[in-house]
Amino acid sequence: MPDFMRCAREGTTSLRPIEARGRRLPPHASDELVHVDAGAYGATHGDRILRFFVNVNPRQDRIWASRGTFRDLYRAHAHAAGIAPRAGHSPLQPTALDRARSRAVRLAAWAIPALRVADSSPYDRLMRRFHNYMKDTPAFRDANDGLVRFAFAPFSAWMVLTDAVSHACLSGRHALVSTFVLPLANCRHRELAPYYILAGRDEPGPRAG
Fold first, then answer.
1. What is the pLDDT of residues 116-159, one digit of tens each?
2. Residues 68, 59: Cα–Cα separation, whole Å
3. What is the pTM of this model?
4. What pairing do the DSSP bridges indicate for beta strands 9-16 and 157-161?
5. Cα angle vertex 66, ends 64, 69, to 5°?
6. End-to-end alpha carbon distance in the chain
7. Which segments in the chain show pLDDT lower than 50?
């Protein structure tokens, strides 16, 4: 996919050797809870999170679940999560503090590349807020509406834009995971990207109640 991956930035690559079910991690760190990815790779400013997975367990399926796309969940939960746009307000416009912090992080990252994850942006903070809402809010976290399960057989591979597809890993042991942050400009259907949706190009429905 040379055009799609042009100028993509490497994120992390890892082996997941521990059984995903029952780890009892704090909610924000738990892969067992449905979420969209946000905030782990520094400031993306709307660039996409693309992840590649391989189930290297020779005997056991890796079980995933999803409750739909970011766009569908945004339409249903943007007001409750506090990420719906307000009239006359540009939610993704960086402040002077944002710009100064980004410059400082870029300079420091020349010496210590890992420091780039300390950067942030209005977009990334909104995405993180929605990520946390999905994991913290019992009305969402404990519901099963729209839930679909997927079983990935031994040695199967799959790739997901994990900022735009909600997901959870319910069970499975031994998986390889590689992450890339690729430019939003590489995407053909940018109207489906969370950046454009958060910018107010896809208005959520009326507030419930």
1. 666 678 899 999 999 999 999 999 999 999 999 999 999 999 99
2. 28
3. 0.86
4. unpaired
5. 140
6. 45
7. 207-209
Supply the Cα-derived Rg of the chain in whole angstroms.
Answer: 18
Calculate ∠ Cα 125-131-134, nearest 5°.
Answer: 140
Sheet hosting strand 62-66, strand order edge to edge: 148-152, 62-66, 168-171
> Length of the chain in residues, anyone?
209
Q: How many CB atoms lie within 10 A of CB 16?
A: 19
Instruction: Write the DSSP assignment of 41-76 as a string of letters.
Output: SS--TT-EEEEEEEE--SS--EEEEE--BHHHHHHH
Q: In what order do the strands lie in the sheet with 175-182?
A: 9-16, 175-182, 48-55, 157-161
Residue corresponding to tokens 């009326």: 206
> What SS3 state is found at 39?
coil
Q: Which of 79, 51, 22 is nearest to 165 (CA)?
A: 51
Tokens standing for residue 96: 């002077």
CA distances from 83 to 35, 136, 198 (A): 15, 15, 7
